[in-house]
Amino acid sequence: MTTYASVLAALSDPTRRDVFERLRQGPRSVTALAETLPVSRPAVSQHLKILSKAGLVTQKRSGTSHIYSVDPGGLVELRQYLDGFWSDVLQAFEADIKTRKEESK
Asked: Which of 12, 41, 50, 89 has the greatest count of CB atoms below 10 A from its CB?
């Protein structure tokens, strides 16, 4: 089960975020990703393994290659977590407006 904490942990590494951002542009193989990053193919594979474990990417086999894609469902828990903060902010804003209205009477 993916949690927002595992997603945050997976994206905490700058290189891993870079891999994830490149996959937003479309599916890519490990080799294609490694060609655009300052790390080796084995390092890219390790980053993809962590992203996959966090539920952020999926993989398909194409011949001898593994093609990785972003899994949008992997961001659901993080989105819900962050949306909770937005709800808190809106409630605080509403309470502040009510307080100001009461004070101005």
From this structure: 50
